[in-house]
What does this fold into?
Amino acid sequence: MTIGRLAEITGVPASAIRYWERHGLLPEPERVSGQRRYPPEAAERITVLRKCQQAGLTLVEIGEFQREQPQRQAMIRAKIGEIEQRMVDLEHAHQLLTHALRCGEEDIVRCPRFREQMAAWETADPAP
It folds into this structure.
């Protein structure tokens, strides 16, 4: 299929497809009369690339993700650690905002419950 058709099927602009090719994230397609021709599997690979981006992987990490298993293990472990920390941070943000909605204190920083929660977060979080 042509790059235009691939772009239409995947919802990804042709410019992004060419960019991913230049950076080795997509294999070079065959050329017929100078025109790129993609196999049906290219759409599936683009779907995986989009999901990786949505999961927060950088282009470099996506490149690592596509390597053989031993080479990608360290990147995957590091990314899982980052995601777990983000989950903790999001839970703290949720608690803070939920408390702020209900708190009657003029200045939330002076609220005893808020201060207790902040102290609990500091003792629970490992030092960077």
